[in-house]
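Internal tracking record. Fields below are filled automatically when a chain is submitted to the structure queue. Please do not edit lines marked as system-generated. If the sequence contains nonstandard residues, flag them in the REMARKS field before resubmitting.
Queue: standard
Priority: normal
Entity type: single polypeptide chain
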Amino acid sequence: MNLNKYLAFFLLVFTLNGQAFELTTGLTPPKQQKTFLGLSGIFYEASDFPLATAQTKIESLDLSAPVYKTDLESYTVTANFSQFSITPQQSSFAHLYDVKIGAGYTRVVDEQRMWSVFARYGSASDRPFESADVSTLGVTGFYSVPSDDPAGKWLLLVDYSNNRPILNNIPLPGFAYFYTPSKEFRAVLGIPFASINWTYAEKYSLEVFTLVPWILKVSTSYAVTPFAKLYTGFNFSQSTYYLYGREDKEERLFYDDKKVFVGLKSPVSQTIFADLELGYAFDRAFFEAENYEVSPDEETKIGNAAYGRLSLRFIL
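SYSTEM-GENERATED OUTPUT FOLLOWS
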């Protein structure tokens, strides 16, 4: 069973902190690994901030490249960069950054088993790399094994991060079961995440991904052509940062928002894939806490705003 076909949906929608590309690489057999470059920009129209009307935008770049590979093993490097900008400046910061570099190793044990480990170091802050207390560190290891059902496969994993929304600085074990009884239905059931990709009628499909309690994305799409899809849906997610000079070193800045959207995704060529999305962001807020809170006592609300997002993905 080729694990890569399960990950096409699951990991590419998992964009939390730019880890999607490195996880996709780590769970792809070495001989099938390729270089990926992703560019994305989200631009919000003017919205009401606490002090004055302002505009926000989020720009990101993600790169994953195997530097050495054989049929049995590969060494990979990754780089991720994102910038959250507020114009004009509303508080002590005008820009928030999340910068990471990483490296990984993947090893094939046999036709049914494979393991990988990835480490990443960076900084998520208004002043990245200014001091040690704004640095981020993460390590993820996973091991895939077959199941008794030929339509399924198990994934065992352990993850450590010092910038996780909750249960920070704790190595967390996890598992997932990949199940694909047909080409119309694929599911990944695990802790603490789950995803479903279901073609429920000709040309219509449903996609669901959740990383409890931080991320929820639900969308339904219509295949305009065998390659292009129109889609609509809902997304709830957040970003986390360490502010430079904070008194409580365990405290972080959270940005929370929810979105409804419509979009079109299609290949531009054999190596370039485009995704254009238009939507409306609401329930937007900043708050400071040690761990993520669903309803924080003190938060800075930001006005609702229409937005546009363009993402390009290059296979090099």
